[in-house]
C-alpha cells in the first residue's frame, strides 16, 4: 500500500478505535523501511511508493501484537468539563451531556451497521473483526446509559 492507502485503510477498518495521521504514517514508513520490516516498490518517492511487509516485518508485527498492552493515561474532555461543572452551571453541563449522548447514539448506529456487514462477511478474519465491533457497541451502550443517568442527576440539581 501507499502511505495514503494505509491511512485510508486504517480509517475505514480501524477508525472506530484507532487513528493515525499522515504526519505519523510517513515517518513510520521510512523507519520501518530502514529497519527492513517493509520494502518499497514504486518510483522511490515516499508519497508515490507502495510498501510491502517483509517476512521479518510480519514476525515483528506478531511479536508486537503479543506484547503486554500499555495503559494510556485517561483523557476525557467531557468528564473534565463536568468535574468543573459548578463553574459552568447546570444548563451548560446538560448541553455537554446531551452532546455526549448524541455522539454515543450515532456511534452505536454506525457500529450496528458495521456489525451487520461484518457478520455476513465470509472472510476468515470476520469473527475477530466482530470482537472489536462488539467492544465498540458495548462502550457506546455504556456511554448512553451513563448520559441518561447524568441527565437525571442534573435535573435534580438547582442551578
Q: What distinguishing features does this structure have?
A:
mainly alpha, single chain
Task: Write structural notes for this entry.
There is one protein chain. The chain is mostly helical. The chain contains seven helices and two strands. A two-stranded antiparallel ribbon has the order 1-2. The chain is elongated, with a radius of gyration of 21 Å. The model has no long low-confidence stretch (mean pLDDT 90).
Question: What strand line-up does the widest sheet have?
Answer: 1-2
* Rounded Rg: 21 Å
Tally of individual helices = 7
Assembly state of the chains shown: single chain
Helix amount: 55-70%
| Strand residues, percent | 5-15%
Largest sheet: 2 strands, antiparallel
Mean pLDDT level:
90
Basic shape: elongated
Query: What's the end-to-end separation, in Å?
Result: 55 Å
The ordered H/E elements are HHEEHHHHH
Topology readout:
Blueprint: H1 3-14, H2 22-34, E1 38-41, E2 50-53, H3 55-66, H4 77-83, H5 85-88, H6 90-119, H7 126-155
Antiparallel strand pairs: 1-2
How would you summarize what this structure contains?
This protein has 7 helices and 2 strands. With 159 residues, it is mainly alpha-helical. The mean pLDDT is 90.
Amino acid at each position: 500500500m501507499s502511505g495514503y492507502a494505509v491511512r485510508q485503510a486504517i480509517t475505514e477498518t480501524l477508525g472506530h478505535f484507532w487513528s493515525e495521521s499522515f504526519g505519523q504514517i510517513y515517518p513510520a514508513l521510512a523507519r520501518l523501511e530502514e529497519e527492513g520490516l517493509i520494502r518499497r516498490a514504486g518510483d522511490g518517492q515516499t508519497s508515490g511508493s507502495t510498501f510491502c511487509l517483509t517476512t521479518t516485518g510480519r514476525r515483528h508485527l506478531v511479536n508486537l501484537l503479543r506484547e503486554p498492552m500499555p495503559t494510556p493515561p485517561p483523557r476525557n474532555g467531557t468528564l473534565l468539563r463536568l468535574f468543573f461543572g459548578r463553574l459552568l452551571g447546570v444548563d451548560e453541563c446538560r448541553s455537554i451531556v446531551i452532546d455526549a449522548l448524541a455522539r454515543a447514539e450515532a456511534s452505536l448506529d454506525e457500529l450496528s451497521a458495521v456489525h451487520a456487514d461484518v457478520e455476513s462477511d465470509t472472510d476468515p478474519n470476520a469473527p475477530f473483526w466482530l470482537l472489536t465491533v462488539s467492544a465498540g457497541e458495548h462502550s457506546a451502550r455504556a456511554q448512553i446509559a451513563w448520559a441518561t443517568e447524568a441527565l437525571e442527576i442534573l435535573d435534580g440539581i438547582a442551578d
